[in-house]
Structures are given as structure tokens and as C-alpha cells.
């Protein structure tokens, strides 16, 4: 630190010191440092499983605020749903993709396609995803839309406006995952811990294979 202060003072003597620029530089380094850290899930017997899911999504949203242009929350949602489906159905039953791969680019019916069901995962439902649901129906598929709590009413309203409200199942992400964790854990305390651990393990495997940003991973603490 003494050497660095001497360096700054030397810059000032030369008239080359811009403290605002130096401050911005270090703020950016701090953001990069914390952005490189994995998200954390802590399993506490006193808290609901929905809260556990909510916390990791909140971490992704907070990081997104300090890293404009990077959709951490959307990626976390997509891969949590994919990992949850793998835990419930067994890995290999459907394809995963990176978050940046759109349905249109890949020719997919949805983010996940299982049997005759197309699953769409989004943080902010809009008319575009509702149109993809309509396309699913026209092609003989059953669409499911998984979103955030705040997007639930919006998605239902958009589906109603499009005339397909009674043909699209809309689920809130916390409930969608938490209920399955209870079932996988056979509604037992130790079973829930194992189920959450399995979910995080599979999630990290998906991130490792399909994403280039390791900071999307989750660290599980019991």
C-alpha cells in the first residue's frame, strides 16, 4: 500500500493523476472479484425450500445490477429448472443448452422439450414467449411457462389476451422447484438435504458443460 501511495503521489507530481478514473478502475476490479464468486445456497432447517430457491435467484439479480448486459438471473432460472428435471426424470431424457442459445436459433420448441411438453423459462414474460406457446399448441405440443413470482400474473394476463389462457400452464419458479425437492426427499429432513445437494450438483454439471462463465455455479453449504 505504501508503494502504491508513493506511485499515486508521483503521478500527481507529474500532473498525470486522475483520482476519479483511478477510483472507477478499482470499483470495476471489486465488481469483477465478486462476480467471479459462485452463488451460495445455505440449507437451514428453519427456512422454507422456497426461500432457499428465492435467495439464489436474488443473488443472481443483485450481481446482474452491477454487471450490465449479463443476464445472470435468466441463466440461473433456466439451469435450475433443467437440473430439477434431470433429478426428477434422470439425466439424458432431454437436451440442455446455453442460456444465450435462443429457441429460434436452435429450432427448439422451448427451453426444454420432454414428451409432448415444451417448457419455457423466463424472468420477464412478454408477448414473444406467449407466441411461442401458441406455436406449440398449433404444432400439437403442450406448453408450460415457468417464471418469477412477479411475472406470474403478467404471463397469465398475456396468455388470456392471446386467447390461450386455459391452454398454457404457468408456474412460479420457487414452487415449481421446491415442491419437487420435497417429493424427491420423501418429505424427510435428511431427504431434503440430499435432494438439494443433488440439485446443486446437477446444476453445476450443466453450467460446466454448457456455459463459459464458471461464476454461474452454486456453492452448497449445509
How does this structure look, described?
This protein is α/β, with parallel strands linked by helices and 222 residues long. The protein has one domain. It is built from nine helices and six strands, in the order H-H-E-H-H-H-E-E-H-E-H-E-H-H-E. It has helices spanning 2-13, 19-35, 49-66, 72-89, 103-106, 127-138, 149-161, 173-184, 189-210, and strands at residues 39-42, 112-114, 117-121, 142-147, 169-172, 218-221. Strand 3, helix 6 and strand 4 form a beta-alpha-beta unit. The chain starts with a helix and ends with a strand.
Q: What class, by secondary structure content?
A: alpha/beta
Shape: globular
Largest sheet: 4 strands, mixed
Strand order of the largest sheet: 2-3-4-5
Strand content: 5-15%
Taking all Cα atoms into account, the compactness measure Rg is 21 Å
- What gap, in angstroms, lies between the N and C termini? 37 Å
Poorly predicted segments: none
Please indicate the count of domains. 1
Number of strands: 6
Helix content: 55-70%
H and E order: HHEHHHEEHEHEHHE
Amino acid at each position: 500500500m505504501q508503494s502504491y501511495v508513493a506511485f499515486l503521489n508521483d503521478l500527481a507530481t507529474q500532473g498525470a493523476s486522475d483520482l476519479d478514473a483511478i477510483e472507477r478502475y478499482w470499483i470495476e476490479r471489486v465488481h469483477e472479484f465478486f462476480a467471479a464468486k459462485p452463488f451460495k445456497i445455505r440449507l437451514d432447517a428453519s427456512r422454507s425450500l422456497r426461500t432457499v430457491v428465492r435467495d439464489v435467484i436474488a443473488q443472481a439479480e443483485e450481481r446482474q445490477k452491477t454487471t450490465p448486459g449479463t443476464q445472470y438471473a435468466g441463466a440461473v432460472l433456466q439451469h435450475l429448472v433443467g437440473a430439477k428435471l434431470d433429478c426428477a426424470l434422470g439425466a439424458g431424457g432431454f437436451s440442455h443448452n446455453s442460456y444465450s442459445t435462443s429457441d429460434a436459433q436452435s429450432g427448439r420448441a422451448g427451453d426444454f422439450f420432454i414428451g409432448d411438453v415444451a417448457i419455457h423459462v423466463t424472468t420477464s414474460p412478454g408477448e414473444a414467449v406467449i407466441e411461442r406457446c401458441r406455436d406449440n399448441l398449433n404444432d400439437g405440443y403442450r406448453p408450460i411457462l415457468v417464471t418469477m413470482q412477479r411475472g406470474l400474473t403478467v404471463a397469465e394476463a398475456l396468455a388470456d389476451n392471446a386467447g390461450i389462457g386455459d391452454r398454457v400452464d404457468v408456474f412460479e419458479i420457487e414452487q415449481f422447484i421446491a415442491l419437487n425437492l420435497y417429493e424427491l426427499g420423501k418429505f424427510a429432513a435428511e431427504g431434503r438435504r440430499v435432494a438439494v445437494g443433488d440439485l446443486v450438483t446437477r446444476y453445476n454439471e450443466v453450467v460446466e458443460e454448457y456455459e463459459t462463465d464458471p461464476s454461474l455455479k452454486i456453492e452448497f453449504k449445509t
